[in-house]
Backbone:
């Protein structure tokens, strides 16, 4: 089974990977550290301004020392079609303190990781369940599935009042399309 969806948004994500930008921070002169939430908001806003077709995403950053040359590594998470999650790291650097400050954002050329959202994995396993294992789950939950060969997660299903555990194992990946192939097996009680 493949991590679903078309490649919608993939080109938009790739367009932003090498974006560099500056942004006036309008920070108080006596500030020693810019909170990570503010760094992330400023950098994300600037990425979106410079790349209007970028896939929607969200940066998370640590606090940034407020002095020229200081930098932090941030991580931008984007959900593409079919529940594919892509995380790209980048560096945010203070380049000027004039006029409230200026930041530069440079995103890495390659994704740090990708995978499938747990809600999407649960949807796909729920669709597969009646054909493979007989019965209809009344509840089914799955965690995030990292797109690395050999990654194993357990989905939990409730079928006919009984809990059933399903092992999901990644067997192949296509990092250019942020997709993985995986198998689903019902775990037998020991």
Residues:
């Amino acid at each position: 089974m493949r991590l679903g969806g078309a490649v919608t948004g993939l080109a938009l994500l790739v367009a932003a990977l090498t974006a560099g930008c500056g942004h006036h921070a309008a920070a108080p002169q006596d500030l020693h550290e810019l909170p990570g939430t503010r760094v992330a908001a400023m950098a994300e806003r600037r990425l979106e301004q410079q790349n209007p077709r970028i896939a929607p995403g969200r940066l998370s950053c640590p606090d940034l020392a407020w002095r020229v040359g200081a930098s932090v590594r941030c991580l931008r998470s984007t959900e593409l079609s079919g529940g594919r999650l892509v995380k790209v790291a980048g560096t945010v650097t203070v380049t000027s303190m004039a006029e409230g400050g200026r930041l530069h954002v440079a995103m890495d050329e390659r994704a740090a990781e990708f995978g499938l959202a747990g809600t999407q994995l649960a949807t796909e396993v729920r669709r597969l369940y009646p054909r493979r294992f007989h019965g209809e789950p009344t509840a089914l939950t799955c965690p995030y599935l990292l797109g690395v060969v050999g990654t194993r997660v357990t989905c939990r299903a409730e079928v006919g009042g009984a809990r059933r555990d399903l092992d999901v194992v990644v067997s192949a990946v296509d990092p250019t399309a942020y997709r993985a192939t995986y198998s689903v097996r019902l775990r037998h009680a020991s």
Q: What stands out?
A: The first helix runs from residue 10 to 16. Helices lie at 10-16, 36-50, 118-133. Residues 116-186 form one domain.
